[in-house]
Amino acid sequence: STYVTLDGVMEDPQNWSFDYFDDAAGAFALDSLRKSDALLMGRRTYDSFAEVWPERTGDEFSDKINSMPKYVASTTLTDPAWTNTTVLGSDVASDVAELKQRHDGDILMYGHGPVARLLLENNLLDELHVWIHPVLWGDAAADDLLFRPSATARLALSGSKVFDSGVVILSYVPA
């Protein structure tokens, strides 16, 4: 599940996405989290989430994300502070394949960086939700963009949601 602007920017969504997060988007996000048994992250996502989420409690979303098993793909993180976090080994693709066998529910991942591209390359990504926000951000480096050289994949549209805020979620599965 990844947020993106109309011009393809994915980085720093806290700078451009919050104005578009309404009750309907919150319900969709909560439903996705409810279906999930675990959370998979790259190191950058882990660092930003671990800075914010452990401080939040008392609502279903915060309590679920804080209590669920979390897996981080990192070669440098050795002692994660966020509860229930496991650092994956050097063979992330094999580790994720094993996690998929171990967990009955979804393994949720936010963002579309190196870990998502690795999952695509290894046919391990089951569904992709692209949250398109009605904003042209215009300020991004090549690595901040969804549209950059990466693994090729053919996807089939499996669903769409349009929110009053203008956000459109396109859901895809491997074709």
Order of helices and strands: EHEHHEEHEHEEE
Discrete helix count: 5
Q: Give the radius of gyration.
A: 16 Å
Which class do the helix and strand fractions yield? alpha/beta
- Quaternary structure classification: single chain
Counting DSSP E segments of at least 2 residues, the number of strands comes to 8
Rounded mean pLDDT score: 91
Order of strands, widest sheet: 1-6-8-7
Unreliable spans: none
Helix share, percent: 25-40%
CA-CA gap between termini: 18 Å
User: How would a textbook summarize the main sheet?
Assistant: 4 strands, mixed
Q: How would the global form be characterised? A: globular
Strand content: 25-35%
Describe, in plain words, how this protein is organized in 3D.
The protein is an alpha/beta fold. It has helices at 23-34, 43-52, 60-67, 92-102, 114-121; strands spanning 2-5, 36-42, 70-73, 85-88, 106-109, 128-133, 155-162, 168-174. Strands 1-6-8-7 form a 4-stranded mixed beta sheet, with no helix packed on it. β7 and β8 form a beta hairpin. The chain is globular, with a radius of gyration of 16 Å. The model has no long low-confidence stretch (mean pLDDT 91).
What's the short version?
With 175 residues, the protein is an alpha/beta fold. The protein has helices at residues 23-34, 43-52, 60-67, 92-102, 114-121, and strands spanning 2-5, 36-42, 70-73, 85-88, 106-109, 128-133, 155-162, 168-174. It contains five helices and eight strands, in the order βαβααββαβαβββ.
